[in-house]
Amino acid sequence: MAAHPLHQIGDTKLVQLCQAAGDTGAFEELVRRHQGALVDFLTSVTRHRHDAEDIAQTALIKAFMRIGRFDGHSTFRTWLCAVGYREFLMHARRHRAHLRILDRARGEVPPPAAADPDWPIDMRRALEGLSSDERRGVVLCDIAGLTHAEAAKLLRVPVGTLKSQIKRAKSRLSSTLGPDTEEKR
């Protein structure tokens, strides 16, 4: 029986090839399929495309090194976004620590970060008006496409709490963006 080209094999089988044989070709196919979604998700979290691309590269390396930990309880894309989200959190901690060190050295407060031109201005402003919990919930579920259960597990909050945060966020977004919110996305 001839082997199928990698692009014809499902994610589950590709993951199995990576786990069993360390098949780098299979992992490259997974990257080809899911890297764009990962970068889009990280862009929505970081609000800076360049940072998102850097974090995604690190997340992909870590995903390759940790592919044996993928247990199949979620989709590969969900697992990859979770790896990316943890990388984002580490990146944010390092960035804040770096800014504190620079502030102490200069005795200054840094200027606010420039907005990412890839984001529509209304949506960017609206998301910035949400609490961090509300923003994370909306980004993970409505932008990255995670289920409530997957996002709650990633954020380590009860599903009911996450749903409440998302409901509040959507209400605030609706009032900020107006009745045609869906069209502005």
Account of the 3D structure:
It is globular, with a radius of gyration of 19 Å. 31% of the residues are buried. It is mainly α. Helix content is 72%, strand content 0%.
Quickly list its features.
globular; single chain; disordered C terminus; mainly alpha; about 180 residues; about 0% strand
What class would the helix/strand composition place it in? mainly alpha
Weakly predicted, low-confidence segments: 181-185
What is the overall silhouette? Answer: globular
The CA-CA distance between the termini, in Å, is: 47 Å
Sheet-strand content, in percent, reads under 5%
Count the E strands. Answer: 0
Portion of residues within helices: over 70%
Mean pLDDT over the residues: 80
Radius of gyration from CA coordinates: 19 Å
* Topology pattern, helix = H, strand = E: HHHHHHHHH
Major sheet details: none
The number of helices is: 9
Short description:
The chain is an all-alpha fold. The chain has helices spanning 11-21, 24-46, 49-65, 76-106, 121-128, 132-143, 148-155, 159-177, 181-184.
Walk me through the topology.
Elements: H1 11-21, H2 24-46, H3 49-65, H4 76-106, H5 121-128, H6 132-143, H7 148-155, H8 159-177, H9 181-184
Helix pairs in contact: 1-2, 2-3, 2-4, 2-6, 3-4, 5-8, 6-7, 6-8, 7-8
